[in-house]
Amino acid sequence: MSTDNVEVPVAEEGLIPDLYLGYMKQVLTPYIVADRCFDKFFVNFDFLDQECLKYSVSKALGVGIIAGSLMVKVPQITKIFGARSAAGITFLSVVMELFAITSNMSYSYVSGFPFSAWGEACFLAIQTSIVAMLVLWFNNGSILLALSFLVAYGSSVYALVSGLTPLDTLWSMQALNIPVIVISKLIQAGTNFRNKSTGQLSAVTIFMLFFGSVARIFTSIQETGDQIVILTYLAASSVNALIAGQILWYWNSPANKKAKSGKAQASAGKGSSGKGSSAAATAAAAPEGKGKGKGGKGGKAASNGSATSPKKNKKSKKDN
Fold first, then answer.
1. pLDDT, tens digit, 9 for 90 and up, residues 297-318
2. Structure pTM?
3. What kind and span of H or E run contains 212?
4. Number of neighbouring beta carbons within 10 Å of residue 255
């Protein structure tokens, strides 16, 4: 029997070419899309699978939060450094926040949770430690004290994540995060209330922290299921909302306007003092130059007078 005229069925290519599907699978799995869900999404275009959708949303939020955390406190750092002041920021509040971030990072790392569930804590810890250093530096005027704090903090982090600290201790630290976060933010809120101003707090940083902590509630439920971690982010979202509300409430407060006008006057004062000093130098130099000019003319007159006096003497002798 001849098989020359038998047609061999050819697999139909989907809407997305197989070559591109291979590249997409390498990039997206398992960071955004679960391996078992890839074909459902990009071959069958079935985006209604509840488990796959939850996984992808959680992973995407986690990656977005980590990406945002790279810069979340940079506005705060630049604001403090630019003003050369940490006015309105309490060191105790910053240290307590740093304790909460470090506890969460250490507990999650040692527990083996996915990096997408806690990765932002690494970058927040670095930036918050810099904020604490700047507060020490500008509020106490000691760069040595600020650098010593950074060294001590780095040593503490190594002890927590290197296996020297038991997991039970890390769990207890994570459990302490809830009261620590609440108290630290309430201290800052109390300072804002007394000052009727949010001082050098950065609105961008505060709102990014608020939205990030809200998103972390969902990702923690999906990726860790740890009740302590979930409760921590619930507490953090509540107190971050309080600080964000104060940012809006005191935005146009007289204290904030006074602080801004004080900065403007200070910068204007620096400019006017520079102009005043140059004007004073010019004024001091001008009479001296004029005096020299007059003195030069007087000297010429005197020399002319002394030059003509012998001629007058000779004339008087002849007349005699």
1. 444 444 444 444 444 444 444 4
2. 0.64
3. helix 203-223
4. 15
